[in-house]
Predict the structure.
Amino acid sequence: MKGHDAWVALAVSLLALLLTVFLTTGALVLGGYSPLLTFQSLLAGSFGSLDSFFGVTLVRAVPLIVIGLAVTVAFKSGVWNIGAEGQFYAGAIAGVWVGLNVGDYPSYFSVPLVFLSASVAGALWALLPALMRTRLGVGEVVTTILMNFVAIHLVSYIVRWPLQEERGVFPNTDLIDESVRLPTIVPGTGLHLGFVVAVILVIGLSFFFSNTSMGFQLRAMGGSQEATRVSGRSSIPQLLIVTFLLSGSLAGLAGGIEIAGRSFALYEGLSPGWGYTAIAVALLADLNFIAVLFTGIFFGALEGGAGAMQREAGIPATWVAGIEALVLLSVLASDRLFRRLLRPRRKED
Amino acid sequence: MERVSKNFGRKTALNNVGFTSFPGEIHSLIGENGAGKTTLMKVLSGLVVPDRGNIRFKGKEASILTPSDARKEGVGMVHQESLLIPAHTVLENLCLGNRFGSKGNVLPYRKVRIKLEELRDKTGLWMKEDKLIEDLSIGERQKVGILKLLLRDPEILIFDEPTSILAPQEVADLMSLFRRLSRDGKTVIFITHKLNEVIEISDRITVLKQGQVVCRTIPEETDVKKLSKVMIGEEVGANLANSGPVGATVAKLTSVKALGVLGEKKLMDVNLVVRRGEMVGIAGVEGNGQKELAEILSGLRRPDGGTVQLPREIGFIPDDRGGEALIGSFGISENVALGLVKDARFRWGPAMLWGKIEHYVRELITRYGIIATNHQQKVAELSGGNQQKVVLARELKRSQDLLIARNPTQGLDVKATSFFYKQMMQLLGRDFQRDGTEQQAGIVLISSDLEEILMFADEIYVLYNGGLLGVNKCKASKEFIGRLMLAGESGRVMSVKGDGCHEGP
Amino acid sequence: MSRVSERGTILGNAVSKIKRVISVVLLFTMACSDARNEDPLSESEFSGFRVALLTSGPVSDAGWYGSAYEGIQLIEKTFGARISHQQTSTPAEFDEALRAYAVSGYRLIFAHGFEYQDAAIRVGEQFPEVTIIVSSGGRVSENVIPLIFELEEGSYIAGVVASRITKTGIVGMVGGVSTPPAEATFTGFEAGAKSVNPDVEVLVNWIGSWDDVAMAKEAAVTLIRRGVDVLIHNTDAASFGVFQAVREARDSGEEVWAMGMNRDQNDVVPEVILGSAVIRIPEAFLRLAKLWKEGKLPSGEAYYAGGQSGAADYVVNPSLAGKYKPELMAEIDSIRLGIIDGLIAVPRIDFLERVEGSF
């Protein structure tokens, strides 16, 4: 939260960009592809036009930001929630169920209802690991990952049986009604209201964590659970439950937003591992809520640009995944490098 | 070492310090917290590179830039908290970092065993090599740390405040180890706060103050009073009233039991009464139930049996400053705020009134003389004494009725210690400005520092193996309580308190 | 971490950060904009035939996705079209990818899988000049054309062959994910088998995955243990597991045969694969592209790629042709003709939905 952090982040991304350009150029030349066309399409596909920035980068950033916030909430409080993926699906299931059954009400009623049910479902999905942690002392890393698999298979079941589309042919649900869909905020692009929700969440959580007593206690728990218990006289199980529920509800909400804003139906494989990508989003942001907004957009741009690289430069999908990984690695490496350079020397006794 | 200087940022840690020691001597290095003792020794052992100055061994100029340079020159340091791996055995820990020419990934078990035998014959130091570190007491862990150092056969051994965590008998053992080492021609450098130990054992004494040498002397020419004057210009425990009127009961434990995670007994049938205006001292070697007793007394955990009466708000100074009392990565304000989260005056609904809190914290920093760049400085960057002041500043606010303190002065210098006790006396209602209307608090001091307990406590108990033994203060000698702490001899005979004992010496 | 100053500047910080990002974005925009958006769909730039392909799996699978890629390559070679392919990873990006192609002047888009159908309807409505072909799709609109492969025709013939070859009287099928098109192939297989011998027993085992080789092998082994001696599959990469199981059974002395599906797999394990029920995706794609180019592609209805167009067939493995008696060969030819002429009714599942309202 120090002033120079933003500048560090900017410098880091520039250095990383150079590093990646250097590395990938070499790889592309060896593979017989045009580096110039590749980078041009990467940038054009993510920032090159109104549609690519609003309709691709920001739209893709929405789930990454919201799930990134979920991960940040958990990690900041010392809870290793690796289960955002499952909580996202739980939210998507609840969201699509409410979306399909809400009936004919105005948007300002049905959309919040979808959000609410998605959040509650995400929170409930996180509740089991929370109880196992607080009651039985079972580490949440394993339980939350396992809950991901349960959620993924639950989706497969839901789209084949209880919520399968009307004709009973394809493994997905029907489309939700127009009135339950999020309005587009930039006409002509696919940018939906979910982005505004994400920005509000960023500001709200940032305020919650720095200015409320509960947020402070969660932060303290992340700093030292023992000190929070002993010196803060806080009930750690209670704080843990709050963390799990808050984190789970955010990831669940992301599921609701995707349903109401982009896919309008529940499909298998709706999330290509956002719950895990969001961990990188959160860590790259150094668990700073405001920075999550930007790292989320960065990842959104990277994925959007990756699509354009395939379409316009003809780079095969596997190569694109490799280039994406390379960009990410160099960002992480230079991030650490900068941190080390800028870290003030520890004062000694 | 000649003209060694070191700055950390704008702060001068060492300023033209010269330090000489000879083979076969025990050299005490004393000074307040932050005086530069530890930094000086870190320079010698290669952990800190000085800005200026040079170091010579046996007349030869040596450049020590890394710990391994220092190791080659035969310098070794036993740190306050030995860096041992709890889940491994003594032998495994000893093997780490001591290769003895073995190759690859094979640990040199056999060579270390042989060396250990030699060391036992030479120094009498011995540890069961297959015990796990986590099962050892703090004193035993320190022994492992010393053994680990001795295995390297160093010429110069630096001990950083080794006695603050030991029981009297253990301290005596350590002192005799020092003597044996010096007889073998080793140099022992002994960093400490405890002036009487210094007088007792040192061949020579160097006093540091604010990064400069203020005094070089030998024990024969000085005494505790003189030394503490040189260090800070004050005597320990001076001007502190030793007893005062005692009021109503504020806390009462009746047949309290506590169990460990695996159901093992941690506390058995503990009965304790704390009254307003009295300080109850509980002596004992760490690991005899102190943690459980302190947590029950401070309301952090419920007992597994028996009844507990406690006031609504209790101040608690935990033992583990870095782990339980403070969050190192947080600033002073936020650490103080840990004590204010439930305080309506600093909250507005669910929001914390940070402006008000910071104002309050700045006030505390002035009142308690906490030395910090500002109220946001991370507490991990503060010296031990200042950290403890932060804890004190937070906890005294909720100590209107009862304060539980575990080893509160551990690692504190004389000045900080005496500041702490002044605050305690104020809590007990014994300060001189008292107008008689202030409410007195009760204090429970749980400490392994026997002298502290003997000096300040009105009631003395010894905690041994989960049981609380009462001790008659009038008849209690240091040696007797020390034996009780280690052996747990029946204290029943001693629990009969002589009348008039509290009338003062 | 200052509380006061942080609260004082938290907004200021955020604002300055946002400003910074916007300026960076603008910079990128200026650097990279290639006049595409200012001048949408100018004919000069987009003249020429552009064909795009979307798949949700890797085109290196030597199967369903790979054949589709061969298809657009064939279109490239035949018509000199400019082609492009994108592999999508989530249903959430289908709209984006389809729209991106539409905006870039691709007028014929092959969306290779039913999963694209909802997005295709939405994007198709926004871009009426674009034709989207949805392989195995179930929804039709003016410019969204489902491409239905009548794989069940080849499967029917495979069923006849299996029934004639089996000695145990039990034939089996290993299925991937149970979807209507996949089920249709097995219905065809079963109907073919029973048409020549009503007593033949047909066993099915679904594994719930298209590419889990180990699971497919397990399923095949189970069927072989139950007496199956001719084994067909409808999976993707997982088919290797089926062939593996059959080969191992043969190695231990049992006389078991396998059959390929989707594409001509006869050369994968030539010594055990009797033949393959195939759909010729590349040929079907080429045919569609030709019709579209000539303006003869009927809009608003599905395109069936079956035996009639040569897009669905049964291919005898030439290296095992000796296993086919001459009369069986003749039977295959007559059934093939019968299907084309409509004399033989292969069971089909129709699941088309006509879409006219707004999406």
Chain C has eleven helices and 14 strands. Residues 182 and 234 of chain C are 7 Å apart (CA to CA). Confidence is low (pLDDT under 50) at residues 1-19, 21-45 of chain C.
